[in-house]
Design brief:
Blueprint: E1 7-17, E2 23-34, E3 39-43, H1 50-57, E4 65-70, E5 73-74, H2 80-86, E6 90-93, H3 107-118, H4 126-139, H5 156-168, E7 174-178, H6 186-203, E8 206-210, H7 214-220, E9 223-226
Parallel strand pairs: 3-8, 3-9, 6-7, 7-8
Antiparallel strand pairs: 1-2, 1-4, 4-5
Helix pairs in contact: 5-6
């Protein structure tokens, strides 16, 4: 592993205001690092701040106190141009795959927009991008005919596999997998977890794997963080 963490949280604190104007503190003075190629589990009961912590590390929301570092650099000190350049390299897989795709777009059209937005320097052409996607679909046992369908015409497992492929096409430095198997049939949960881990190892991606399932985390993670 590299000596410099891919992502690091320093003395993080986060609270939310309730409807009765009182505050609930999710965590305070929390620090940890995740290195390249490392899979770290995040476990805890509902409402303890697992999703919030993942969003903090992705700079989707901001901490009340503390700092987030990407590749050793405080993201609050980066220019807008630098953050935009790094954004595609810090990805998330959501627990509800249906919410990850525009309902009015076919899967193929969504991937077209995704390519144009991403401006991928790792692909020599758009054709190379599509070749890589189709190669990933073969590995994920996804038929090419599914590209012509709308999200509502696919199963939860098919959508989640497309979501994983979409995230990994960026060859991300860091990936938050937020309960990626919780809404899937038990028969496919292990397959989805294996796919995430396999892709991460191939691309040397750092992962924060969020789950209620302690046994799953113990099977795929090098270490686990518990929010109490």
């Amino acid at each position: 592993m590299s000596n410099v963490p891919v992502v690091e949280g320093l003395c993080l604190s986060k609270s939310f205001k309730r409807k009765n104007n009182t505050y609930v503190t999710l965590f305070s003075n929390l620090s940890f690092s995740i290195y390249k190629g490392e899979i770290v589990g995040l476990c805890g009961e509902s409402g303890k701040g697992k999703t919030t912590l993942g969003n903090l590390l992705l700079n989707i929301i901001h901490p009340d106190e503390g700092s987030i570092l990407w590749n050793g650099k405080d993201i609050s000190m980066l220019s807008r141009k630098e953050r935009k350049r790094l954004r595609p390299l810090f990805q998330k897989i959501y627990q509800d795959p249906a919410l990850s795709f525009p309902p009015h777009q076919r899967i193929q059209d969504m991937f077209k927009d995704f390519y144009r937005w991403g401006k991928h320097t790792s692909f020599s052409s758009e054709r190379a991008w599509w070749d890589s996607l189709r190669e990933g679909m073969v590995k994920a046992s996804l038929s090419e005919k599914l590209l012509d369908r709308y999200p509502c015409q696919l199963s939860g497992g098919e959508l989640q596999r497309f979501a994983i492929l979409r995230a990994m096409l960026f060859s991300p430095l860091f990936l938050v997998a937020d309960e990626p198997t919780s809404r899937l049939d038990p028969s496919i949960q292990a397959r989805i977890a294996h796919m995430i881990v396999k892709n991460a190892k191939e691309k040397n991606t750092a992962i924060l794997f969020i789950s209620h399932n302690r046994a799953l985390l113990e099977a795929v993670c090098s270490r686990i963080i518990y929010l109490e």
